[in-house]
Structure prediction request, 291 residues.
Amino acid sequence: MSDHVVAVVGAGTMGSGIATVAARAGYRTLLHDIDTGRVDNGLATIRDFLTRSAKLGKMTDVEASDAFARVEGSTELTDLAPATVVIEAIVEQLDAKKDLFGALDHIVSDRTLLHTNTSTLSVTGIASGSRLAERVVGTHYCNPAPLMKLVEVASGRHTADWALQASIEFLRDVGKTTVVTKDRPGFIVNRFLIPWENSVIAALEAGLGTVESIDAAVTGALAHPMGPFQLLDIVGLDIHQQVATRLYEQLRDPRFYPPPMVDRMVAAGDLGRKVGRGFYDYTDSSQLFGA
Prediction:
């Protein structure tokens, strides 16, 4: 393991998950968001995941405690000055990401790796916000980040070879498997996943099966580690709606357009695990997906 200091900007589901990965791998980890409430929620998510992992025997209580002790919360970007790797996991809006990287130019070292966890936007477009686009790399973590091994890696038009290779080495150091892909909408995973999830939701809406029976069919016959509705609840229906809609806007392929059920669930606030209700009801602890 190198002497990396890892900063994660964005303390939501993806950001807290990525911070968990870095802390568990032994790195000092800085978790940043715009207000203390979001930071506190992110820290609580990390603590709960590590505690659950220890209870399930995936790590010892001491390892879980040590990992959490390596995480520091912050609402000031200037606190990220020591970072050698900054991983952006904020709202999926191009201008917001460009502005963040432009601000980081004045805070972190010129050799600090800038990673964007985007899944729908252009890495090249995001990198244009930095005066040193050569160090900007797309690193799309599969969700849930602490459990899924795969990270898609994409270079922008001006990404330097050294930054790409250093990013791959870092990801391998934190226990991830990497695949290199082109800077294209959806990369590899979401090009396949979003249309498939939409078809699964449409099948449910058409009465082909229940949430439970479709999940059981997928895990039983296709050997997926969890069913599609379990995954959608982890990702969040609002996030699925945003990603699917953005990919449809760019690709104009109707397979990417979210089915009407998605709109109804988002309007009702049934967003998934983060609110306690989605395709499953999480007041029933048996539906919680273990670490």
